[in-house]
Each structure stands twice: as structure tokens, then as C-alpha cells.
Design goal:
4 domains; 16 strands; 476 residues; Rossmann fold; disordered C terminus
């Protein structure tokens, strides 16, 4: 571990040398300066962990130096020293950002304790900033790939609700990235300096989940050999992300309602309530309103959770984002495996776009990872893909192609028999939903109008094909 660097700024050389002598014994690197200007120059030039600052200096006021340090190096800790102690000076120094206040003369133990605590505070602050930066990078919008209007609408909803304290309920199928969106809400909130703690409500039995959420006291049940903090206590000041919230039994639902209403909870095995200040983001892939009607979910809790609902669209409803997502995961896993894979063949990209993706983005990510691991080529081809998606394989039972000509024939057959009908149905459905308006059809499916027209031409389709269905005039 690198030595702690300390700078003493005091016009009394004897004080400077005494501090150096005491602290150098603790493997600290101690320098000193006898004027305020020289001290500030030294701080600008070198990276210090702690400043021991005299309030009264011959050239600059110590309080002014404290202001400059706090403004330019906010993580740098300052312990103020003075022989003219007053309560007013102490309060003012603390307001200006001083960590501690030592009155001359002070003992060696007082100096060492103040230095130790100040350095520990600096490390905690820097660790917190580092974790916050890591959290922001992980959950920033740049890491949530998508340009489809439906996903852009989700981004805008998050931007609006994140700075508030409102409870958020995320609706979305499994694999749509609900935890990623929860993290984005937390990262853009006022609670970003504290942690977000996820809990999967479907992963534990009701008894274990109750203990996990609310904590327990020693002896509350067999095996409770010590007190344990629950997640409501651990997440105090931050955010608790409750995934699969519909799996809570009715008893825990009632206790969660109390937390939402009053911020109070009771650990298992005690009658004493504790207080917590948390924001709850819940998520589900089920119809919560229907569960209320069936008596499986408390109506009052439903309204407490459903303050700001956000619907996350499944991948099949934003197919225009699939190529961007596919290339994002391709670069990610190529970098992790050290492989140089340039991209996908046209056939594979079309297959990815038109596959239904029941497992959503998570499934796409897993498939791309497997393809990257399996391939030895610079381009991901269709034969690799067929082993990893549940496509109907038209040549099942036929021999594996042995020549390039046979391979091309298999590809052509695959495109005509599998991709072709799906692609054609996709286009007709888009035209039907937009009543034959090509511009609207392209927008609804998340494609550029020009690309949509290319596909129409490929399948010899036009809005006229809908005349028999609509009996009206179609427009472009």
C-alpha cells in the first residue's frame, strides 16, 4: 500500500517538525510549508491525502485556504490547527469543509487519531465516488441499446421519474432488462450516492424472504444465532429493487405496505419497529391488476406500487433494434474472447431480426455469446445459428453439405422456406395495421421507409395486396 502523504502548513517550524516526527513513525510521508502561498503551491503540484492547516498564517488566512482546497480538491481532507480556539472558529471551519479541529497544544495521540480518521474518510469518499462512477457507467442510457420509439418512450419516462421519490413499477416479460432499467432510474436519482440493492422475490421461500427483507433477531427461529439486518435496513438511504414482486405472499404484502406508507418495519422475532428511508422499484412479468381481481394480490398494495408504471416492450415489438443489439453483444463477446469477428452474414442478420425471441434481450445476448465461442470464422454464418435457435430445419435428416455449392443450396433453401414466409407475413401484418400506409407501417415496426420498401419489392408486395381485406383505397 502506498504511504499516506501529509502536508503540514504552519508558520511555527517547531510544530511542523513535531507533526512530521509523530506521523512519520506511522509510515506516513510528511512534508511541511511555513506560509499559506507555499502550501497552496505544494497542494497544486503534488497529490496529498491530508492537510494539517494552521488557521493563522503570516500571508494568507487559513479559512481562505480551506475554501480554496474544498473548491478545487473536494476529496482532500483537512484538519485545522489553532492556538486561538473558539467555538465560532470551529463551527466556521467545519462549515467550510474541515474534517476535524485540533486545539494547540494537542497530544501525539490526538494528532494520530485525527490523521487516521481523516485518511480513512478520504478513502471512503473516493471509494464511494468510484462505485458511483462504475454504477453510472453500467446503468447509463448508453448501455441500454435501442432507438425504437417504444424504447425511447421508456427512456423519457425514466428521465421524468428518476429525480423524484415516487415508487416505480416496471412491467415486462422475462429477459427484457428490468433490472437494467431499475439501475438507470437509481443512477439518475438523488439517491445515486447510495447503493441499489436487488432482491428476487421468487428465489426464496416466504419465511426466508421475510427474514431477508426485514431481518431477524437472535433466537427468532431455529438457526438464528445472531441478529441480522434485513434489506430494508441495509438499503436505508438508497433504492431497493424488488423483482418478481407478485411472488410475495399476502402476509409479506401487508408488511411491505406498511413500509411504503410509514417507512416502518419490524424484524422477525421482535415487537419493536425500525425506520427506513428507501425508494422501492418493483418489477413483474404478470398482470398485477388481474391478480388483484383474483384475490392473489392486495389491492391497496397494488395502488401503492403502481404510482408510476413503466411498460418495457418485448424484443419482438422492437425488431428494428435487433441489429444494433446483435452488434453490441458481438463486440462485447469478441473482446472478452479475444476473437476478431467482423459481423454477421446477411442471412443470419435477417434470421435474428425475424425470430420471435421468447427470452427477449437476455436470450439474444446468450445466443450471440455462444455463437462467438463456437465460430472460428471472421463472420457468423447461418449454420452456426441454426444450432442455437428453435428454427424448423428444412433439411433435417439430409446429409450435411460437403461442397460450397451444396452449402449455398442449403442457405437458399433455408431463406426461402423459413425466413421468406416469416418476412412476408411480417410485411403484410405491418401494412394491415397501418391500413396500407407504407410510411406509417415502416415507423410502427421501427424501420427506415427505404429499407421497408426494399423488403416489399423483394417479396413483390404492395398496399394493393390488402384491397381484398379492406375493400378500400390504400395510401402511401
Amino acid at each position: 500500500m502506498a504511504p499516506v502523504k501529509i502536508l503540514v502548513i504552519d508558520d511555527e517550524v517547531v510544530i511542523c517538525k513535531a507533526c512530521s516526527l509523530v506521523l512519520s513513525d506511522k509510515d506516513h510521508q510528511v512534508n511541511f510549508r511555513t506560509t499559506g502561498k507555499a502550501g497552496l503551491d505544494e497542494i497544486r503540484e503534488d497529490g496529498y491525502d491530508l492537510i494539517l492547516l494552521d488557521i493563522r498564517l503570516p500571508d494568507l488566512d487559513g479559512m481562505e485556504i480551506l475554501k480554496i482546497i474544498h473548491a478545487t480538491k473536494p476529496t482532500l481532507q483537512v484538519v485545522v490547527m489553532t492556538g486561538h480556539s473558539t467555538i465560532q472558529n470551529a463551527v466556521e471551519a467545519m462549515k467550510l469543509g474541515a474534517f476535524d479541529y485540533l486545539t494547540k497544544p494537542f497530544t501525539d495521540d490526538q494528532l494520530m487519531m485525527a490523521a487516521k480518521n481523516a485518511v480513512e474518510k478520504k478513502r471512503l469518499v473516493e471509494e464511494n465516488l468510484s462505485l458511483r462512477k462504475e454504477l453510472f457507467n453500467r446503468f447509463s442510457f448508453e448501455n441500454i441499446v435501442g432507438e425504437d420509439p417504444k424504447i425511447i418512450r421508456v427512456f423519457k419516462q425514466i428521465e421524468k421519474v428518476a429525480p423524484t421519490e415516487s415508487t416505480v413499477l416496471l412491467y415486462g416479460e422475462s429477459g427484457t432488462g428490468k433490472e437494467l432499467f431499475a439501475g438507470a432510474i437509481h443512477t439518475h436519482s438523488r439517491r445515486a450516492f447510495r447503493q441499489i440493492i436487488p432482491v428476487d422475490c421468487s428465489a426464496l421461500s416466504p419465511n426466508l424472504l421475510e427474514s431477508e427483507l426485514f431481518g431477524h433477531v437472535k433466537g427468532a427461529f431455529t438457526g438464528a444465532i445472531r441478529d441480522k439486518e434485513g434489506l430494508f435496513e441495509v438499503a436505508n438511504g438508497g433504492t431497493l429493487f424488488m423483482d418478481d414482486v407478485t411472488n410475495l405472499d399476502l402476509e409479506i404484502q401487508a408488511k411491505l405496505l406498511r413500509v411504503l406508507e410509514s417507512g416502518e418495519f419490524k424484524p422477525v422475532g421482535t415487537s419493536r419497529f425500525k425506520k427506513t428511508d428507501i425508494r422501492i422499484i418493483a418489477a413483474t412479468n404478470r398482470d398485477l391488476k388481474k391478480m388483484v381481481e383474483e384475490g392473489k394480490f392486495r389491492e391497496d398494495l397494488y395502488y401503492r406500487l403502481n404510482v408510476f408504471p413503466i411498460d418495457i416492450p418485448p424484443l419482438r415489438e422492437r425488431k428494428g433494434d435487433i441489429p444494433e443489439l446483435a452488434y453490441y453483444f458481438l463486440k462485447l463477446f469478441s473482446r472478452k474472447t479475444g476473437k476478431r469477428i467482423e459481423g454477421f452474414s446477411d442471412e443470419v442478420l435477417e434470421a435474428l431480426i425475424h425470430y420471435e425471441w421468447p427470452g427477449n434481450v437476455r436470450q439474444l445476448k446468450n445466443v450471440i455469446e455462444r455463437l462467438v465461442i463456437m465460430t472460428e470464422d471472421s463472420t457468423l454464418d447461418s449454420l452456426y445459428l441454426l444450432d442455437h435457435l428453435e428454427f424448423k430445419q428444412p433439411w433435417k435428416g439430409n446429409p450435411i453439405p460437403e461442397t460450397l455449392q451444396e452449402l449455398k443450396a442449403v442457405k437458399k433453401h433455408f431463406l426461402e422456406q423459413v425466413i421468406g414466409p416469416v418476412e412476408k407475413a411480417f410485411l403484410l401484418n405491418a401494412l394491415r395495421n397501418s391500413k396500407g400506409n407504407i410510411t406509417q407501417a415502416a415507423w410502427r415496426v421501427g424501420m427506415q421507409r427505404s429499407n421497408f420498401c426494399v423488403l416489399l419489392k423483394k417479396h413483390h408486395l404492395s398496399p394493393d395486396h390488402l384491397n381484398n381485406e379492406t375493400g378500400g383505397k390504400n395510401v402511401e
